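Notes to self after the call with IL:
- keep both proteins in one doc
- input above output, always
- annotate only the second one for now

Protein 1:
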Amino acid sequence: MSDLTNPLRNNFDQFTFSSALDVVIISLIIFWLFMLIRGTTAMAVMRGAVILLLAAIILARTFNLRVLNFLLENSFTGVLIALPIIFQPEIRRALERIGRTGARAFGASTSNPGTIEAVAGAASGMSRQHVGALMVIERETGLQDYIESGIPIDAVPSPELLHGIFFPNSPLHDGAIVLRGNRVVAASVTLPLSDNTPPGELGTRHRAALGITERTDAVSVVVSEETGDMSVAADGRLYTRLDEARLRALLDRLLSNGRVREG
């Protein structure tokens, strides 16, 4: 019995506070990475990779496949190189979140009451008239790459201006507008589409609203041309069927601290 307990005792003797801290940090990093890719296509990719790896290990061990065993035992370096390539969008998003968290720690805020009032008022008016619209509010992550795809504008936002841009047959009504601070900086902006299909009958405009928020920390306000429903996209999530008061309150919370309480 002592022969069995001695190795265990030695292992526990070597388990110091720094070892416990090491385990906790690694566990938190793994948990954070899983939370980051939860609900994205990256989770399906990882699930498929794990299934393929387990199947290869079982086959190699069961049938003593020497070549496959060799590849599995010497593939660690290749996996380390492949992971950043496969999960590049998720890694970039993680680094951006860290940067935004650091910025907010110093009291940074993108809340602008005038912009919120203009966007909420315009969205409400367009909702009643079933005018489709997509308005993107820049936060910590710069949107210059997307802004350059549109028509430059430099104007103070107002409900009348925003409504006029999206009025049917207006030269600028296609695409999105981007707001930075208290200015409208571009219209007819092309946005990336989300890989995830929005719920219900929501179409391309809502996919674009989600797509920009999956890649940046921007907040998108979208009005459905078919139903007149107003929605907000933030952090890859879509908040639907909002009235003007709820829209204004949601924008205020998102642009003040970037977070929305669950429930």
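Protein 2 (the one to annotate):
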Amino acid sequence: MQNNSNIPKHIAFIMDGNGRWAKERGMSRTFGHRKGVERVKEIIRGAGSLGIQALTFFAFSTENWSRPKNEVHVLMRYLDSFLSKEIEQMQKNNIRFKVIGRSEPIPKYLLAKIKKTEVQTQLNTGLRVVLALNYGGRQEILDAAKKFAKDALAGNINPESLNEDKFRSYFYDADIPDPDLLIRTSNEMRISNFLLWQLSYSELYFSHKYWPDFGIDELKEAIKEYQKRERRFGGINVN
């Protein structure tokens, strides 16, 4: 990638197509998820050298619990294994890790592993890696509204003082800037209840490739496309 200017600081990913990728190869859906985890690792390890500061991966939605129980169980185990194997690399590469979403009904063993990883990496100052797990954008807005209402009822904040910035502080990822770029794979062109507030002014990039085929080269192509665009945030270019 020749142009090192205008690199998106925060990229969010909807990792779509693991199951279809596996089915086309006569393999199980869980095999596709395992290959998908490998792509996550590749993207994380290549992001720092590209100048990216934060990555958010949509790992599991609140709606995904309706999938077959065995598939859900395997996905949780894959995440547990990912955290166990990657914590050393995170520490070595100064990566700070965080999970956003509701904790129930995530298995307790996985919640404990998540908390341990977050605590161990909380002082790291490099790349931020965020996993959206048991996450829904509408649910996040509702949870933020409830937190604000509790503060208002307790007299901790004047409701009339509420603005966008203050409300944003009640979100799961309050300490992370909104994504500059959203990438969704497998040529699906929707955002599927993901970061509804945060994506308001993000650039959207839809790849025809399934997630297991989306590696660092494909990420570079997405960034090149991003660099061609003009972000006006609702305004106009007066030049």
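Annotation: The helical segments are 18-24, 29-50, 69-92, 108-121, 137-153, 164-168, 216-228. The radius of gyration is 18 Å.
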